[in-house]
């Protein structure tokens, strides 16, 4: 019985930690992506979606609303299906 309680506690702790990391990554990406997409010519929702995908993979978003992609090479190097840059 004690073993089951201990296993349940460990699993609960792991799930809580994972969910906290995911939600904190989403919130940090969201704020950075809002700034990044604030002056984008593309549809704002599309820019935010692509930026969040790129931020989720790279854990960074270049500063400013345009350029500065050398600050985050991973973000810079992600390509779309046509071979162009995916990240705004």
From TrEMBL:
Keyword Nucleus listed: no
Domain of life: Eukaryota
Segments crossing the lipid bilayer: none
Cross-referenced InterPro entries: GASA (IPR003854)
Signal sequence annotation: 1-20
Keywords: Gibberellin signaling pathway, Signal
Family: Belongs to the GASA family.
Protein name in UniProt: Gibberellin-regulated protein 8-like isoform X2
Organism field: Camelina sativa
Gene that produces this protein: LOC104769043
